[in-house]
Amino acid sequence: MSLSPGDRIAGALGGDGAPVPDVVVQPDAETLARAVATALVARLAAAQAVHGTASVVLTGGGIGTAVLRHVAELAAEPVRERVDWTAVDVWWGDERFVPSDDVERNELGARDALLDPVGVPDERVHPMPASDVGFDGPEDAADWYAGQLAAAAPEGGSLPRFDVLLLGMGPEGHVASIFPDSPAVRDERPVVAVRDCPKPPPTRVSLGFAAIGSAEEVWLLVSGEGKADAVARALGGATPDELPAAGVHGRRATRWLLDAAAASRLPAAEDGAPTPSG
Prior knowledge:
Layout: H1 5-13, E1 22-26, H2 29-51, E2 54-58, H3 61-76, E3 88-92, E4 94-96, H4 106-118, H5 138-151, E5 164-167, H6 183-186, E6 191-194, E7 204-207, H7 209-212, E8 217-222, H8 228-235, E9 253-259
Parallel strand pairs: 1-9, 2-3, 2-5, 5-8, 8-9
Antiparallel strand pairs: 4-7, 6-7
């Protein structure tokens, strides 16, 4: 029996006794977005079957928004599982601290791609604050969002249940708005203010590693050859200071969901580009 490319990569990366990562490789970004959308619908439906509700943390970026559009398509014409979108809580992994109508905000893209089309109720949508809604700065906004998380947490807790937390990754290995060798890497608070980001806009609010690592499952969505080196380094033992994506782990599962270009520098790809895996 031959192993899929994702299995071969995971086996090679786990060969030194380290925890074996869950690596899935799709041939291109479009196929990846469709596959992730299908998996996300199934995971949220499963969470609702157990808990009655589901909770997801969204990411922005091209691949993240493409996933949301495909989820909306599946909601309009369900193939298998159905999600009750009135019983899904939606949070964000990070947000640009810009005015509420600024197209740079991840919230606007998510509302357009998924939340408005499927009718998630306003009370279940938990955006990070914008810069024009009464906060003195990103520090105040981060403290407020931490309070919102605590208010939704079980008694005695500081964070709600996150069934799936979606993350993109930058070519230098940043996740959410945690950039290499930045104060956010070492900040133990659940929500942090980020200033002077190397990628514009420079001022942001981000979940910290403490909140990210509390999620039941963390899914990293990565496409493009420009991110292949960072993928290989993150899965090959880099430190979170050097490459924040290396410090991301879910409580029950951590899934690297890649297209072939992003996976091209991983061990199993040495003799050629990976082919699809599930």
